[in-house]
């Protein structure tokens, strides 16, 4: 899974100007600041990509 994420997302971001990829546990401190793993990050714009996993729920009848 890590390899797929790297190929689909992280490698694409590396080629973009003015984009910094920061991974970790984060919280917003203001409109232009966040704490990521305890480190303050400043930004003009932020994109939050939380990820997801698809799964089939065990619901009968369908």
Structure described in brief:
The chain has 62 residues and is of the alpha+beta class.
How far is the N terminus from the C terminus? 29 Å
Beta-strand share of residues? 15-25%
Strand order of the largest sheet: 1-2-3
Question: What is the molecular shape?
Answer: extended
Using the CA coordinates, give the radius of gyration. 16 Å
Percent helix, as a range, is 10-25%
Low-pLDDT stretches are none
Largest sheet: 3 strands, antiparallel
The overall strand count is 3
What structural category do the secondary elements indicate? alpha+beta
Mean pLDDT: 85
Tally of separate helices: 1
Topology as H/E string?
A: HEEE
What does this structure look like?
This protein is α+β, with helices and mostly antiparallel strands and 62 residues long. 21% of the residues lie in helices and 21% in strands. It is built from one helix and three strands. It has one helix at residues 2-14, and strands at 26-30, 33-36, 39-42. A three-stranded antiparallel beta sheet has the order 1-2-3, with no helix packed on it. The chain is extended, with a radius of gyration of 16 Å. The two termini are 29 Å apart. The mean pLDDT is 85.
Descriptive terms for the model:
3 strands, three-stranded antiparallel β-sheet, extended, 1 helix, alpha+beta, 62 residues
Topology record:
Layout: H1 2-14, E1 26-30, E2 33-36, E3 39-42
Antiparallel strand pairs: 1-2, 2-3
